Amino acid sequence: MKFVAFERSKQGTGASRRLRNTGRTPGIVYGGEGQPQLIELDHNALWHALKKEAFHSSILEMELNGNASKVLLRDVQMHPFRQLVQHIDFQRVDARTRLTMKVPVHYVKAEESQAVKLEHCVVTPVISDLEISCLPGDLPEFIEVDLSGLKKGMSLHLADINLPKGVSAVTHGKKNPVLVSVMATAAEESAAEGEAAAAAPAAEAKPAAKEAKGKK
Q1: Beta carbons of 95 and 134 less than 8 angstroms apart
Q2: Separation of alpha carbons 90 and 97, rounded Å
Q3: For 106-121, how does the pLDDT look when each residue is reduced to its tens digit (9 = 90+)?
Q4: pTM of the complete model
Q5: CB neighbours of 3 closer than 8 A, spacing ≥ 6?
Q6: What is the DSSP annotation of 84-127?
Q7: Which domains does the chain have, with CATH numbers?
Q8: Is residue 40 a contact partner of residue 90, using CB atoms and an 8 Å limit?
Q9: Which neighbouring-strand residues pair with 112?
Q10: For strand 143-146 and strand 99-108, is the pairing parallel, antiparallel, or unpaired?
Q11: 150-189 burial, b if ≥16 CB within 10 A, otherwise e?
């Protein structure tokens, strides 16, 4: 994705407030070999860009003074109750340096699984994004996870999926976190309990019948 930024000469709370009043959002670009660069962006264009998933999880092309550079979105500060972006941070991208960031996880084909189609279970994602480490050129916009193999009582763990080439997960000490859980619905559990309860008296009746025959 591309976006246009403009140089910002003034900084400070008062200057930022006046900038927002003109429909601009203050920001900064840091990292790499260059010095931090103060920037400003058109608020309306930024607001619409922030609604797109790719703006948060992919390498962006920033145009500044006619020059293009690669950056990542690193932080967005929103107003507590107004639809207003107060400040935004970007980080320069070095093609030779590994980066760490969170990318969305897209779960697909759950409705085709045995758990959903035949066993009427509920598939519940435990995480919606995954922190990964990779070179900028290997950064995926999202990670797709196929759930068509799920069955009742299963849990899908990180080790059960294949990450894109060059990508490794950052788990912060959790070796194999759960991504998705599969649970039977309350109706299914009630039906199973009912069947078990109905089967129990029948099983008890058979020994009683045998005792009666023995007495005769």
Answers
A1: no
A2: 16
A3: 999 999 999 999 999 9
A4: 0.78
A5: 41, 45, 46, 49, 60, 61, 62, 63
A6: -EEEEEEEE--TTS-EEEEEEEEEE-GGGSHHHHTT-EEEEES-
A7: 2-93 (2.40.240.10), 100-189 (2.170.120.20)
A8: no
A9: none
A10: parallel
A11: bebebebebeebeeeeebebeeeeeeeeebbbbebeeeee
